[in-house]
Amino acid sequence: MARRIGLQARLLAMTAVVLACCLGVVALLLDESYRQAVLRGAEDQLRAVANGLIGAAVERGDHLVFAELGEQRLSQPDSGLYAYVDAAGAGVIWQSPTVIVAATGIADEPPIAQRPAPGESYFGAVQTAGDPKRFVYAYTVVWEALSDMELTFWVLADQLPYLRQLSAFRQDIVVWLGVAAAVFVAIQFAALRWGLAPVRRMAERIRGLESGKRRNIGDDYPRELSGLAGNLNRFIAHERANRDRYRRAMDDLAHSLKTPLAVLKNAVRHDGEHVADGGAYVLSEQIERMESTVGHQLSRAAAVPAALPLVRVSVMGTAERIVRAVERAYADKPVTTELVTSGSSVRVDERDLMEMLGNLVENAFKYTRSRVRLSVRAVAAGVEVWVEDDGDGIAPAQRTAVLERGTRADTENPGQGIGLAVVVEIAAAYEGALAIDASDLGGARLRLRLPG
Question: Does residue 135 contact residue 77 with C-beta atoms inside 8 Å?
C-alpha cells in the first residue's frame, strides 16, 4: 500500500498552493499598477513637452517659430522623441529636427483618424506600417494671433524605453516575490516542525509501546493533545489489565483442572471391581467437569481483545510448532502434512496466534483421512492462513453455523463445538475473520485472515 502523505507535507503543500495563488494575484496587481503608472508617466512627459512647445512658440508672419525647444531630445537624432505642429486645412507648419531626420515620414499624416477638438487632448498608443509602437499626445488650440487658426501640437515617443522599464520591473517582481516565497516557506516549515513536535513525540512513544520499551505515552503534551494522550493512556492501562486477565484466566484454567485430574488419577488406579462400584461414574462426572471448565475459561479468555498492534510474529514458524505438537497427539493416525509459505508475519500476540492455529490444525487432523495442508499467503489486506484436509468437508448449509459457539457439524467425535468459535472471536479482536469453503483435497478449507 502506498505510503500516505504526512500532516507536515500536507500543510506545507497547502501553504505552497495558497502562497502561490496569493503571490500570483499580488504580482498581477503590481504589474497592472506599475503598467498604469508607466502610462501615466508617459502621458505626463509628452504633455509637458507639448506645453513647453506652446509656451516657446512665437508668431512670425503666418508661421510659428520656437526660440528654444526646451526638451533637448527633440534635437537629438534617434532619441525616440518627436514633435510637430499642423494647422487645420494648412498642413504641417513646424516639425522638430528629430522628425526631419527620421527614416519614415512621421508627419506625413496624423497618427489618429480625427484630431482632438480645440481645448481637448488625446493620449494613446499607435503603430503605423513599418514604424515601431509609439505613444502619441495631441493637443489642439485656437491661435488668435494667426487669425484664429486651429493648431494641433503632436508629440510622439517610442514605446521601447517604457517597455524596457516595465520588463525590468517584472523581472524584479519575480525575483523578489520568489525570494519572499522561499523565506515564507522556510519559516512555515520551521513553524510546522515546532508545532508538530508533540505529534511526532506521541508517534515515537507509540512505537516504543509496540516494541515493549514503554508502558504509556506520557502526559507532557499541549492542551489540544492532552485529552487524546489521557484517553490513550487509559486505554493502554485497560488493555494491559485485560491482558493480565487473559493470563489469569489461563492460570485459573490450569488450577481448575488440578482437582478433577487428581480424582481421575485415583479412579483409574482402582481395579475393575472399584470401577464397577462407581469408578465409571466418577470418571464420567469429572470428565464432564473438565470439559465445562475448559469451555468456560476459554470463553472468558477469548473475549479479551488485543487492541494494540504488537511485534510481528512469523506465521509459518508458529504453524510448524503447532503441527509438530498435533502430530504427536495424533501419532496413531497416519497423516501427511504439507506446509506452503510465503514467509509472511502478522502483528498479533504469539499466544493468540498459537490458539487460533492450534484449533484449526487440530480440527483438520480430527476430520482428515490422510492429508492436511497448511498454506500462508500474503494478500492485500494482510495475511491469509489456509488449513485444508481431505475429509468429508462441511456442507455449505452448515458452514456459518459451525462458526458459532456450541455448534458442531459432527456429533460422533468428542468435542464441545467451541474451537472454531474461539478462532472467530480472537480473529475479530484483531479485525480479522474466519471463513469456510471447499478444498481441492476433497474436504474443508478454513481460511483465517489477519491484518499484516
Answer: no
| CA atoms of 374 and 364, how far apart (whole Å) | 10
| pLDDT one-digit tens code per residue, 244-278 | 777 777 766 666 666 566 666 666 555 444 544 55
Angle (CA) 227 228 231, round 5°? 85
pLDDT digits over 78-121, tens only?
888 888 888 887 788 888 888 888 767 777 778 888 889 888 99
The residue assigned the cell 458459532 is 404
Q: Are strands 57-60 and 313-314 parallel, antiparallel or unpaired?
A: unpaired
Report the alpha-carbon distance of residue 226 to residue 210 in Å, rounded: 21
Q: What distance in Å separates the CA atoms of residue 245 and residue 303, rounded to the nearest whole number? A: 10
Cα separation, 68 vs 220, in Å, equals 84
Handedness of CA 416, 417, 419, 421 (dihedral sign): negative
- Give the three cell numbers for residue 197: 513536535
For helices 223-269 and 197-210, give the axis angle rounded to 10 degrees. Answer: 10
CB-based contact 384:448 (threshold 8 Å): yes
Report pLDDT digits (tens) over 140-165. Answer: 988 877 777 888 899 999 888 888 88
- Chain-centroid distance of CA 294 in Å reads 48
Amino acid at 36: Q
pTM over 0.90: no
C-alpha to C-alpha distance for 333 and 413, rounded to whole angstroms: 14
Name the DSSP letter for residue 434. Answer: E
In 3-state terms, what secondary structure has residue 371? strand
Cβ atoms 104, 131 nearer than 8 A:
yes
Query: In degrees to the nearest 10, what's the CA dihedral of 360, 363, 367, 368?
Result: 40
Distances (CA, A) of 36 to 27, 39, 45, 48, 334: 14, 5, 14, 18, 97
Cell of 140: 489642439
What is the number of residues in the chain?
452
The string of pLDDT tens digits covering residues 423-438 is 888 888 888 889 999 9
Cα–Cα distance for residue pair 100/227, rounded to 1 Å? 86
Best CA proximity match to 69, nearest among 41, 43, 98, 91? 98
